[in-house]
Design brief:
Elements lengths: L3 H8 L1 H10 L11 E7 L16 H12 L4 E5 L6 H12 L3 E4 L3 E5 L13 E2 L4 H11 L5 E5 L2 H4 L4 H9 L3 E4 L8 E4 L6 E4 L6 H8 L8 E5 L6 H13 L4 E4 L2 E4 L9 E3 L7 H11 L3 E2 L13 H6 L5 E4 L2 E4 L6 E4 L7 H10 L3 E4 L11 H10 L5 E4 L2 E4 L18 H14 L1 E4 L20 E6 L4
Parallel strand pairs: 2-13, 5-6, 9-10, 17-18
Antiparallel strand pairs: 1-21, 1-22, 2-4, 3-4, 6-8, 7-8, 10-12, 11-12, 14-16, 15-16, 18-20, 19-20
Helix pairs in contact: 1-2, 3-4, 3-9, 4-5, 5-8, 7-8, 8-9, 10-12, 10-14, 12-13
Length: about 475
């Protein structure tokens, strides 16, 4: 490991130490004396205004990145609500010298190009966004000055070593403030090699980060992937957007060759809706047993693996008529592979429990999200009286279960998809749900769809 003192000096001793001291307590088992939560009333219904899905943050963060690499002005349309993850990406890009103007449903981005990024005066804090953090790591590794990157407690407790190992192999200096090589990290580029290996068995994000970071390199870059790969559709999305911006990419078995390219995005770029969020619309329709109109139904092409849900609708008791979800109360047992759509796991688990049951597999990489999404989803559902059998790569769920009112606060483990699932289950029986603002990571308007907006409360904490 490189000596951290030299690199910390580069970013400013006072700033770095002050930041590290500010966020020094990981306290995995610690619970504060009072915990913020939402009080969801029993039999809360939905408003009749329909359900508009938020913009896809997978698309949006990648598009913002590619626009920042261009020296021209670009407009991203369809951005009606900027969730916390894209907001974190925007804030960090602005610290690097990118100009971003927000309007009612658009982002106007003018980037300085890779050679024009300025040295940030503060730590690049990615908040809760693993995607933003990893993409920013790739970006920071291309500069010739040191940059400190950090995130919230959830990101600090996640392992980012797959990407950092790849960057170190390219000559990038990585310095850590902890013995366990966790955040915060200081990166000092640039690259001095152009052939790298990356482990894609836990996440596709390190691969996508390296792909995006090849922009403006004047010789071909070879990225060698591991034989096991998850979330392949997200990696393909990265390459599709890069090609749309002028990249030339070749494949040779498990090797990807990116030829010299410059990012030239469309002047006006449409951000599609988030197809993974449709799972919450489906769960809400089943819990409330009512029709829901989806204002902006995603296309199969924009669903990046989550189109599996559209194919699954008849089996889970839902009919899609044009853009209206209609409960049919006719369902069957489902076996589904989520290798390319593990974000569906929490709401889909609840859906299977309330309909015909089934088995979810291929989701081992869900263990590396904000929470261990397999075990924590099972724990959260158990609090509503729903039982699951945990497997190595998913779970088996018995069908025709009923929702029971929790006897204590429902824990959501800092995971917005668990929180959103818990809130929808609570609309039937009532519950106090931990994490009143977690949904803002992906869908700031989520609570506004409920007829009675849950109130924020403080719950006395229990030490685990």
């Amino acid at each position: 490991m490189f000596a951290s003192l030299h690199l910390i000096t580069d970013v400013g001793i006072g700033m770095a130490k002050g930041w590290t001291n500010r966020w020094n307590h990981r306290d995995k088992g610690h619970r504060p004396s009072h915990i913020e939560a939402l009080d969801v009333k029993e039999n809360t219904s939905l408003t009749d205004t329909g359900w508009k899905l938020p913009p896809s943050k997978s698309h949006l963060i990648r598009m913002m990145h590619l626009c920042a690499l261009s020296q021209n002005e670009h407009t991203l349309s369809g951005v009606t609500a900027l969730g916390e993850d894209p907001e974190s990406m925007a804030r960090c890009l602005e610290q690097l010298g990118v100009k971003i103007t927000r309007t009612q449903d658009k982002l106007i981005i003018e980037g300085p190009g890779i050679s024009g990024f300025s040295r940030p005066k503060k730590v690049l804090d990615a908040g809760n966004s693993g995607t933003a953090l990893r993409f920013l790591m790739g970006l920071a590794s291309r500069t010739n000055f040191s940059i400190m990157l950090d995130g919230d407690a959830s990101l600090r407790n996640r392992d980012h070593q797959d990407l950092l190992n790849s960057l170190e192999s390219l000559g990038v200096e990585c310095s850590y403030e902890t013995e366990h090589k966790r955040l915060p990290v200081v990166l000092q580029g640039p690259w001095n090699k152009h052939h790298m290996k990356v482990d894609t068995s836990n996440s596709s994000q390190p691969y996508s980060s390296l792909l995006l970071a090849t922009e403006a390199i004047k010789q071909p870059c070879v990225i060698e992937r591991s034989s096991i790969a998850v979330s392949k559709r997200h990696a393909q999305l990265t390459m599709d957007l890069m090609v749309e911006c002028g990249a030339v990419i070749e494949h040779d078995k498990n090797k990807t060759i990116v030829h010299p390219w410059q990012s030239k995005p469309p002047a006006n770029w449409q951000v599609p809706p988030d197809a993974s969020m449709l799972a919450f619309t489906a769960l809400s329709s089943i819990v409330a047993n009512r029709e829901i109109t989806v204002a902006n139904l995603p296309t199969k092409e924009d669903s990046i693996g989550h189109e599996v849900l559209l194919e699954l609708l008849p089996a889970i008791g839902l009919i899609l008529k044009k853009n209206i979800l209609i409960p049919s109360e006719t369902y069957s047992t489902v076996d589904i592979d989520l290798v390319d759509a593990n974000d569906l796991l929490p709401p889909l688990s609840a859906i299977l429990a309330l309909t015909g049951g089934g088995t979810i597999s291929g989701a081992a990489h869900a263990m590396f999200k904000e929470s261990n999404r397999i075990t924590k989803t099972a724990e959260m559902l158990h609090q509503f009286g729903i039982e699951c059998i945990i497997k190595d790569d998913g779970m088996t769920i018995r069908g025709n279960q009923s929702i029971q009112k929790p006897t204590s606060m429902v824990e959501t483990f800092g995971d917005h998809r668990l929180q959103m699932t818990a809130i929808l289950l609570a609309t039937r029986v009532g519950a106090t749900v931990e994490g009143p603002r977690l949904h803002q990571v992906a869908d700031p308007s989520f609570l506004n769809r409920l007829s009675t907006v849950p109130t924020e409360v403080l719950v006395k904490g229990v030490q685990r």
